[in-house]
Amino acid sequence: MSSAQVQIFDGPDISLRSDTIELPHQLETGAVLVEILLATICGSDMHTISGQRSEPTPLVLGHEAVGRVVAIGGTIDGLAVDDRITWTIADSCGACSYCKEYALPEKCERVFKYGHAPVTDGTGLNGCYASHIILRPGTTVVKIPVGMPDAVAAPANCALSTVCNAVSRMPSTIRSAMVQGAGMLGLYACAYLKEMGVEHVFCSDINIERLSLVADFGGIPLDIREESWPVNRANVFRCAPDGVDVVLEMAGASQLVAQGLELMRTGGYYSFVGMVHPNSPLPVTGEQIIRKCVTIQGIHNYSPVHLQQGIEFLEKTRGHFPYDRLVSPPIPLSRIDEAVALARTQKFCGVAVAP
Ligand SMILES: [Zn+2]
Ligand SMILES: [Zn+2]
């Protein structure tokens, strides 16, 4: 094979188009040619497709996937042809201040993010809605344990790793938590906190279908629609009389921050994860933050260590939580428009495509 099949995004409201991109004859040292086995459509891709966020075009979207190593530029310790792998959403240089001093490689000055770069950048094989992708030097690769289904592992390099990052910065003693949003991030967070031994993990949403999955992932579903709220609010304070220790914002809706603060105990910790868009002014005063002695932490993407932790977590808890129910059966890459339409219905937390 000398070329890869790709689906190209040309702009909002234009159908993705099938094309081919030539595979390079020789790989740069440290680069990895990967055959995509399965990719999942992320909410952020849906935002790009609908025009809510803008990316340079034309580009191959997709950053969540599992693949098989086809070729390696030179040698990489611990990696071999035919290994089944996933990889960090971004590479990082390892030399800038963010990489070396600030422990924020995800904010590397020269960061390159898969599924966000145009086909004119490098080999053009920069996204996962394709038969192949080329991983750049500086990308962390993690092997997928034998027996772990592709669909269980694929979303790990986005939502689950971000959850690992958020949890890693939290106080060590947590008895109660509130997760806002029962999407992919929220359900992984419920599972993670439950496994950590957090006694009460509430998870709120207004989508009843989504809430129906919460209990299976270790959470206590919290219907926050107006008619149900008074009873459910009382239930939170019955379990956590002072309020919850931590709140994780994973719904992307800034108006929910007022509710999060109301349910949080004084001296609590608030993780902001989901509101990665400009339409997120906060409905709070500085005084509320000060009087409640709140710690707020913004979380954007993650470090390589969090992907490793995410895959280990999946392997350890695969029997505890129904991860396979989060992702749709795979739709052929050539029919990606169908997959995008299915993602729009929000029937599944993730929609899978496979070449
Ligand atoms: Zn993603
Ligand atoms: Zn760097």
Give a verbal description of the structure.
The protein has helices spanning 43-50, 97-100, 150-153, 159-168, 184-195, 208-214, 229-239, 257-263, 286-291, 304-317, 336-345, and strands at residues 3-8, 17-22, 32-41, 64-72, 84-87, 90-91, 112-113, 132-135, 141-143, 176-180, 200-205, 220-223, 244-249, 264-272, 295-298, 331-332, 351-354. The chain folds into 2 domains: 3-156 and 303-354, Quinone Oxidoreductase, Chain A, domain 1, CATH 3.90.180; 170-298, Rossmann fold, CATH 3.40.50. With 355 residues, the protein is α/β, with parallel strands linked by helices. Residues 92-93, 95-96, 98-99, 108-110 line the site of one zinc ion.
